[in-house]
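G., the chain you wanted modeled:
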Amino acid sequence: MRVTVIIPTRNAEAYIDSLLSALEKQSVVIDETIVIDSESSDDTLQIARKHKNVKIMEIARKEFSHGGTRDLAFRESKGEIVCFLTQDALPANEFYIENLIRPFLEDSDIAMSYGRQVARENATIREKLTKELNYPEVSSVREKKDIEKLGIRAFFVTNVCSAYRRDAYLEVGGFDRDAIVNEDMEICAKFLRGGKKVAYLHNAVVLHSHNHTLLQHFKRNFDIAVFFASHRDIFKNISEYSEGWLLFKKVFLNLLLKLHFLEAGLFILKCVFDILGHMAGKKYKALPVFFAKKMSAQKVWWERK
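Predicted structure as tokens:
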């Protein structure tokens, strides 16, 4: 099966050389690598062009969207299996792609797979704990019958490090091109409700983390709330709060047990900004676009409204 890797970029010069070099060392052949760039002002494209067999696609910044940009590159690709990586995710070893795509070769009902994120060395303790809890060291496969038991957790996936079976992706219409965020969660819901399976691979590892500011946490959760509010039909009768509360308790108790009291306090503060952002995002329809754009991390999305 032919394999394509797609990487959306914007000002990725700090990451792109290491990422493309890591992909060139993978244990399986990557038939096609596509870098789709939205008006980088640094040396991203010059660096990418130094790597062989890399196809460059360029779009205007105002045309970028998480779902639309990925869908555009997907439809230009040739692979039966199409993998996505963000520009700041780095495969931990040469077996990343091999492990990520293995489920597609073993089960024809697998529509999507995603890998394990491990926080970088410079990440905060609370970020490392959150990654460990969200991405356990046990692989799993989810299907429709698991939705009732797992709730919102059934749809937890990530396009930081993911792969899709081409025909399954096209069958459900691809990503929501207008989704503000969480295009991966939305298509996962389509797969599961349509009778397909989604696999999590603990041994398909990438290094990836962010040390977000409180304002960035607010904006990120504002956008997530906008996503859920605008996709009620897909996530009906599914609470987006239960999993967040469970994660909060686990991380907070771990920080206390390890005597990281300052980190525990900062984690509470971070969660307060998460909640405030989510509360504001749920009411986005009542907000003037000018104010919504200020609260959002996706200004380009609001400019198209």
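Residues 38 and 59 are 5 Å apart (CA to CA).

Shout if anything looks off.
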